[in-house]
Amino acid sequence: MRPFEPITVESAPKQIARRIKDAILLGEIKIDDRLPTEDELAGNFNVSRATIREALKRLAAENLVVSKRGATGGNFVRAPSQADIRQSIGELITVAVSLEQFTFEQVMGCRFEIGLMCCRLASENRTDADLEAMRREVVLQRSADITDVEFCASDVRLHCLIAAATGNSLLAASASGILEGIEPITNLVLFRVRDRNIIADQHWQLIECLANRDHVGAGAILTQQVEYLSKKHVEVENWRKENYK
Questions:
Q1: What is the pLDDT of residues 185-195, one digit of tens each?
Q2: For residues 207 and 229, what is the distance between their CA atoms, to the nearest angstrom?
Q3: Which residue segments constitute the domains of the chain, with CATH numbers given?
Q4: By C-alpha distance, which of 240, 138, 134 is closest to 192?
Q5: Could you give phi then psi for residue 163, rounded to 5 degrees?
Q6: What whole-number distance in Å separates Cα of residue 205 and Cα of residue 217?
Q7: Which of 96, 117, 163, 209 could make an S-S bridge to 218, C-beta 3.0–4.6 Å?
């Protein structure tokens, strides 16, 4: 008989972090509550202070606990901010896309569907300030002096501005995280073959549709852009096949 694989025992810090997290999610510990001291937690769980510190580090990495110094300091429960949500989602998706866990078609499909949803809501809720911020990005994109890296960063910011213009903070945080995760990879693949002027012109038309509260027209522009980028991706793949036989 084939021998069994050895079992793995979950570490004490991980178990403790999970129990504290569960208490937070269940409302037993409230936002801004001060946790018991390290000594008190060590006694409660019957472990060393070093083990408690490691558990608290895990919770801090999830943005659930923040440490404050001073006489009134300690470890306090905090709610993840929109920036925390955005960053966590973006980092995970960047890693997944970099490791090719998703196809280019899946990435573009995700980008398109999120864009449609954001444009529909942004066309209803955008402000003049939102539009002005978007237009500034396109002006930057049309500059011949910016690098491809700077163009990519502006591209990401523009789509995140559209997400923010939806007026839905949860959607804005999650959509921006996804976009920040997939846009740089898309640009990395396509920057040598796509025409920056075409992209910038499409962005300008998209903003004008939002200004006119025309989500149907915005969807048509998004469709054009996805079709254009997909065509350029085929060119990249054909070039790779030709040069890496």
A1: 788 788 888 99
A2: 19
A3: 12-77 (1.10.10.10), 82-243 (1.20.120.530)
A4: 240
A5: -60, -40
A6: 9
A7: 209
